[in-house]
Amino acid sequence: MDKIHIRDLTLCCIIGLYPEERIHKQDVIINVTMETDLRAAGKSDDLNDTVDYHAIQLSILDLVEKSEFQLIESLADRIAEICLNAPRVQSAKVTIDKPGALRFCRSVAVEITRP
Description:
Helices cover about 30% and strands about 35% of the residues. By secondary structure, it is α+β, with helices and mostly antiparallel strands. Strands 1-2-3-4 form a four-stranded antiparallel β-sheet, with helices on one face. Strand 3 and strand 4 form a beta hairpin.
């Protein structure tokens, strides 16, 4: 299966359970891998034969910037839904890093895969 990646999309949103996390936006780093068949696009060189990753990125931006999820798991699940609603996407893997979530580590991350 062919793959399209959106890598290291860094956005800010309200995310977390604790009161201090509900006041100020925090960075999240989003990575998405979408499985699809790219043979037709490779032959035709036509956007209509592939996944419009720009449109998906805009939908993710809109979701994340307006969101106030408590769990990064919930945010990841909604991003996967966006990907799977796009024509031709057969599965989506979403990884979200939350830098600074825990002391003494670079980030905490959640990775989900949805068929």
